[in-house]
Task: inverse folding
């Protein structure tokens, strides 16, 4: 059998597993999750041997120290990964929830009940912990999962899956046993067997998946996030939020990329925020109107780089910030609509009317009033776990929790009802 | 400008219209709907002139009488179409609904609020009433819509849109002004401007759209619907439901295609249902185990055609029914899982445990207990209006109402909250 045939056979088995798992009740799924966690801990030695193979191959292939670090599984990390599985036990079962209950006009009793999606294909990069997190979230939501992690982590992923499988229906968790691209390309075509693809990784990986996929894809392209400091802002709060949004972890999608400052407070706010940003080594790209407020003598003119049109839609993922002065709320909203990525955007203001207009009119998956964009996160929101974050508007938007791994069915109870 | 450029320009204007419409409150949208209805009535003469052009061209092109009838707009039909718009006024506004409200672990106040999707592309066949229904549903849900109806109805659709537009933001409702396929192919690529495509029509139209589209598509392929008559069924009720599901409107997607009969009641139920079906001129495709119960002397053997493997997955859309005897509930569920289309499936039984297992384990968008599959419909369910019916599991499943034309955003209110 070639990879094409093998992938169809693999996905067919996953579909069977999904049907089996869909019948499991909460108690059975939680017992399986605890067994998965124990299985991982018991197989720690085997997992480390497999992982060492990956790390050694990666070293020879010249992977960066950062990638090698993410790839490496220590006892401590294996324990943390197992612990993360145990935490999912405590979360509510998203399956079987009655989302709505009513009586139809003709008297039938109606329920809209959540059901698993079926088979989920995860495509991701070099972090073996995603293998376990995704498997645990899929089991809890009654879905079978096909995992296609980074080729650098293949042995680690196979060993982790092996450790998790004994307590599950056969093939409920499957690691694609090859790094051959023909295999994943084939999986992306199997829309009769696989219900959803969730790619996680850089923009180029995701664009390649979308290009090739016949499956529905829930994805995250990029986060060009804004903070708008309104004329009625508490400027101390604004400074705290801007610094947190930009500096706390600049390489993440919910980090700040463009600061918008309302004209009436520009003279007061810009010099102080620029001083603090520079003390945190943040490079600036400044729009013309903002430039006058930034040059306060303490900064050499040569260091103030003018923003170009490209800066407004740039996702720096680094200690770089674009700054623009706007004439008011409407101009801020226009700027975000034109250049933003509809991910996460914030306003800092004490004015409720202004805030409410911003929250209503900015069409982003998360809109914040007096809080940092860095807070856009399933854990922070209280979802307990996050399978990904979506910049799509269909099915799931923003941080995705267990609920987003379900669909629903209409359960209709009649008494001989027919269509008249 | 060629069609490609024109379509990008058109979709860009739709996007602007969507932003304008998203700001409208319920009162404004309802006022616009009433004005749209009045506009259609006032333009009745103009609409009929345009429609006569389409009908005449259709006649010359040799369209069937049925298609010509669907295409024709009379005063009465124009009034009915306008009335349907007025009925949407009474439905609740799906935008701005707080779907969930809670406090995050760090104390932020959280809301999950419904928002319009943005721009929706409808692709459909020769019924001009869809032009008005879709426009009205999109306006109520705050979405701009691009309508690409059947080429046979182009003049009618343009005239209807013209009559609806004056009360709306410019370009909120747009009929693609050409039947050139280059135009629609280009629209299907504009995933930066259009949020969703809903094709309505035959399976080949829908498959062609899915094949070409880079947009998310919510679609309906086919309905291979089952009724399972369980050993504990009330056989009078079973007969009533089977006849209704098969005969009331056989060309619809929720009509019955395969009847499954539990072995213990086959001898009692099959002869009577077959007599009634034959009196309704239903052709039968009978599985071997069922054959013995069907031949009761009154039916010539030559008329009992054996079912082939293809019959189990056929969507006849006609007065044809496949019949199979199964050894019990589990075999019925297996049959539906293997051959069904996950659209609408029913069980007839007085046994609650049996029914509950069926409702739980059959993975279809609607599952019925003691009711006809023909009842799978947004109107019957009380949604007030239906934009389509989905056989997908992502975003929307089953009959789609106004709510399914929305996405959501997370509205987060902090007090200077930052990520620690």
Result:
């Amino acid at each position: 059998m070639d990879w094409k045939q093998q992938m169809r056979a693999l996905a067919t088995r996953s579909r069977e597993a999904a049907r089996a798992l869909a019948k499991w009740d909460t108690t059975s799924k939680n017992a399986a999750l605890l067994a998965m966690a124990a299985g991982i801990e018991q197989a720690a030695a085997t997992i480390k041997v497999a992982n060492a193979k990956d790390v050694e191959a990666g070293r020879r292939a010249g992977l960066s120290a950062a990638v090698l670090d993410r790839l490496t599984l220590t006892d401590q990390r294996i324990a943390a990964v197992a612990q993360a599985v145990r935490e999912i036990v405590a979360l509510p079962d998203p399956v079987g929830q009655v989302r709505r209950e009513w009586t139809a006009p003709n008297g039938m009793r109606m329920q809209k009940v959540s059901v698993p999606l079926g088979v989920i294909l995860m495509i991701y990069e070099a972090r073996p912990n995603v293998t376990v997190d995704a498997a645990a979230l899929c089991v809890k939501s009654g879905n079978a999962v096909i995992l296609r992690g980074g080729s650098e982590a293949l042995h680690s992923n196979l060993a982790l899956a092996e450790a998790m499988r004994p307590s599950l229906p056969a093939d409920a968790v499957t690691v694609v046993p090859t790094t051959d691209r023909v295999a994943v390309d084939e999986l992306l075509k199997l829309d009769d067997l696989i219900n959803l693809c969730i790619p996680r990784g850089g923009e180029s990986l995701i664009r390649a998946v979308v290009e090739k996929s016949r499956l529905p894809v829930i994805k995250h392209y990029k986060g060009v996030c804004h903070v708008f400091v309104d004329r009625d802002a508490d400027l101390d709060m604004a400074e705290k939020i801007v610094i947190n949004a930009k500096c706390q972890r600049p390489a993440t999608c919910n980090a700040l990329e463009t600061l918008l400052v309302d004209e009436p407070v520009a003279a007061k706010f810009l010099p102080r925020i620029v001083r603090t940003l520079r003390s945190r080594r943040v490079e600036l790209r400044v729009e013309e109107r903002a430039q006058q407020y930034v040059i306060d003598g303490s900064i050499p003119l040569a260091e103030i780089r003018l923003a170009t049109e490209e800066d407004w839609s740039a996702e720096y993922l680094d200690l770089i910030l674009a700054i623009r002065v706007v004439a008011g709320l409407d101009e801020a909203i226009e700027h975000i609509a034109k250049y933003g990525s509809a991910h996460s955007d914030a306003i800092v203001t004490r004015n409720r009317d202004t805030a409410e207009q911003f929250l209503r009119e900015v069409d982003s998956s998360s809109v914040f009033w007096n809080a940092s964009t860095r807070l856009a996160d399933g854990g922070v929101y209280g979802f307990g776990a996050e399978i990904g974050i979506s910049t799509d508007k269909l099915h799931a938007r923003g941080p995705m929790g267990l609920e987003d791994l379900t669909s629903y069915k209409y359960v209709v109870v009649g008494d001989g009802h027919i269509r008249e």
Observations:
- DSSP finds 15 helices and 16 strands in chain B.
- The radius of gyration of chain B is 25 Å.
- The first strand of chain B starts at residue 98 and ends at 103.
